[in-house]
Design a protein that fits this description.
With 225 residues, the protein is mainly β. The protein has a single domain, classed as Lipocalin (Beta Barrel), CATH 2.40.128. The protein is built from one helix and eleven strands; from the N terminus they run αβββββββββββ. An eleven-stranded mixed beta barrel has the order 1-2-3-4-5-6-7-8-9-10-11. β9 and β10 form a beta hairpin. The chain is globular, with a radius of gyration of 18 Å. The two termini are 17 Å apart.
C-alpha cells in the first residue's frame, strides 16, 4: 500500500470518526442509529465459498446496543460467477427498549436461511438481486420471512483499484402470516475500493416500518480472503 492509498484510507476513517462524534452528542431517545458491519467471503475453490458476517447495531452511536447479528453460510457459484446459491445460519441478539421506559428486553433469535443472488452488468454499472427465505426461531415463537434486495454499484472512476463508487440498494421484507409487510430498507452511500479483496463503505439508510421509520449511519467493510 503506497502513501497515496494510506492518505485516502486515513481521510475516510477521519470522516467516519467525526460523524460518529457528532452522533454521540444526541440523546438516548434519538431516532438516529449506527451500524458497524463486516462482510467476509472465503473462496474454497472456483465454485464454493464460505460467507461470514458480523453486524453491531446501536440505537445511537456506539455503546447503546440495539442488535448483534452473526451470520455464516456455505455458497455455490455458477453461470460464469454471475449467480450464487447459499445455505446459512444466523444468531441475533436484540435489546429492545420497553415502551415509555429506559429498560430493555433481551431477545435471542436463531435463524436458518436460503438465498439466491443474481448479478448483472449494464455498462460499468453493477446490478444485483438477492432473494432470501428465512426460518426464524425467536425465543418460543417461529416465523417465516421473505426478503428481496436490489442493489446498484456505480463506479466514479475507470480504475479497478484505489477507486470510489456509489452504492444504492432497496430491500423489502415480507412475512408469511398477518401483517405481511414487515419493513423496507433504503440505502445510499459512497465506497472506496482499495483492491480486489478489500472495500470500505459509509452510507445512510432509512428503515420504513408500518407506522414509523428509523435512520441509520452504516459503516461497512467487505473482505475477500
Amino acid at each position: 500500500m503506497n502513501r497515496k492509498e494510506k492518505k485516502k484510507i486515513i481521510s475516510l476513517v477521519t470522516l467516519v470518526i467525526l460523524m460518529l462524534s457528532s452522533f454521540t452528542m444526541r440523546s438516548q431517545d434519538s431516532n438516529f442509529g449506527n451500524w458497524l458491519i463486516y462482510i467476509g467471503n472465503k473462496k474454497i475453490n472456483s465454485k464454493w465459498n464460505l460467507h461470514s458476517e458480523i453486524q453491531y447495531r446501536n440505537y445511537n452511536a456506539i455503546g447503546d446496543l440495539e442488535q448483534l447479528l452473526i451470520r455464516t453460510g456455505l455458497g455455490y457459484t455458477f453461470n460464469d460467477n454471475k449467480n450464487n446459491v447459499l445455505f446459512g445460519y444466523g444468531y441475533i441478539l436484540s435489546e429492545n427498549y420497553l415502551d415509555s421506559s429506559n429498560e430493555k428486553e433481551t431477545i435471542n433469535e436463531h435463524r436458518i436461511f436460503q438465498q439466491f443472488i443474481s448479478n448483472q452488468k449494464i455498462g460499468t454499472v453493477k446490478l444485483g438481486h438477492r432473494y432470501r427465505f428465512e426460518q426464524r426461531f425467536i425465543e418460543n415463537d417461529f416465523k417465516l420471512r421473505f426478503r428481496y434486495f436490489l442493489s446498484l454499484n456505480v463506479p466514479l472512476t475507470k480504475k479497478e483499484t484505489n477507486s470510489y463508487y456509489l452504492s444504492v440498494y432497496n430491500e423489502v421484507f415480507l412475512n408469511t402470516k398477518t401483517n405481511i409487510y414487515d419493513r423496507n430498507r433504503l440505502y445510499g452511500g459512497i465506497g472506496y475500493k482499495i483492491n480486489q479483496n478489500l472495500r470500505l463503505e459509509i452510507g445512510y439508510m432509512n428503515q420504513f416500518f408500518e407506522n414509523t421509520n428509523r435512520d441509520q449511519l452504516n459503516i461497512i467493510s467487505f473482505i475477500n480472503f
